[in-house]
Amino acid sequence: MTEKRAEDVHLVVFACEAGMGSSLIGANQLKKRAKDAGLGIKVIHSPVNQIPADTDVVIAHEGLAERARKAAPAAVVLTFRNFLNNAASDRLIRSLTAGEAISADAGPGS
User: Fold this and answer.
1) From 22, 27, 93, 100, which residue has the greatest number of CB atoms within 10 Å?
2) Which residues have a catalytic role annotated?
3) pLDDT tens digit sequence for 51-94
4) 26 sits in which H/E element
5) C-beta separation of 36 from 19 below 8 A
6) What CA–CA distances, in Å, run from 57 to 16, 65, 110?
7) What is the CA angle 35-17-60, rounded to 5?
8) What number of other Cβ atoms are within 10 A of residue 12's Cβ?
9) Would you give the distance in Å from CA 74 to the centre of its chain?
10) Is 82 helix (H, G, I), strand (E, B) or coil?
């Protein structure tokens, strides 16, 4: 299971299929929450197949999780089912604020 220490998280990518609508909204919400929490992380949005190599954490819809793991094998991948109730973003902010390690969601067969 992939894991990152809170202090090693610098770049968070909100990944989407190809368009930028939903991931842009998700990334902007996460940016605001990170800033409000005083976290010094960079949050961007990206198509799942173009996730930057230096990404520490990827937040993606569960249907994109496997592609995100392949595109960013060194990143922790957190998934969600519903954009309006995004538990992955909640979990990330809570863990980083507490200084806890971020663990990847279990992949298929885990």
Assistant:
1) 27
2) 16
3) 999 999 999 999 999 999 999 999 999 999 877 778 899 999 99
4) helix 21-36
5) no
6) 14, 12, 19
7) 45
8) 27
9) 12
10) coil
Do residues 68 and 48 make contact, with C-beta atoms less than 8 angstroms apart? yes
Q: What's the pTM?
A: 0.88
Tokens, residue 58: 């990827």
The model's pLDDT over 20-44, given as tens digits with 9 standing for 90+, comes to 577 788 889 999 999 999 999 999 9
- Report the residue count for the chain: 110
Residues with Cβ within 8 Å of 6's Cβ and at least 6 positions away in sequence, in order, are: 95, 96, 98, 99, 100, 101, 102
**Count of C-beta atoms within a 10 Å radius of residue 27:** 22
Parallel, antiparallel, or unpaired for β 102-103 and 3-4? antiparallel
Return phi, psi of residue 95, to 5°.
Answer: -70, -45
Structure tokens at 44: 């961007």
CA 69 – CA 72 distance, rounded (Å): 5
